[in-house]
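Researcher: I'm preparing a figure for a lab meeting and need a structural model of a single chain. I don't have an experimental structure, so a prediction will have to do for now. The sequence is pasted below. Please return the structure as tokens so I can convert it later.
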Amino acid sequence: MTMDAMRLLTDVGLEPTSKRLYVLELLLRATKALSAPQLLEHIVHDNAMNKVTLYRILDKLVEKGVVRRTTSADRMHRYCAGFHGEFHCHFHCVRCDKTYCLPPPPDNRPTMPPEMCVGRIDTVDILYEGVCSACIAPCETDSPPQSP
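Model: Understood. Here is the structure written out token by token.
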């Protein structure tokens, strides 16, 4: 158990239960945003909790701003604790299906031109989609077709 996970939970008024800590630590250690089925693979392996409990914990972590939830074109929710729940964008690779956290903007706030603002912005989800560098690299090393 990391003190970082415990502090994140207590800072937002959540009791640091063993199951919340388990889920949050999985997300903090992850190098990419994870879907609930991906999290369940770890949870089932460790026999940590059931699916309903996982979804309740994820919803509560999102509600409290500890974790961000993003949805890609495949309509799959992915969760990340990158940047400790602060606003940031994501990049989804359409080839390998990984979703990466991108650094937050300098002022850490999404902006909208004043003339377009029609009310208070509560959430923003910016998702870039394309092919990641790891998937591009193997293609670049392929030799071009030989001409006869």
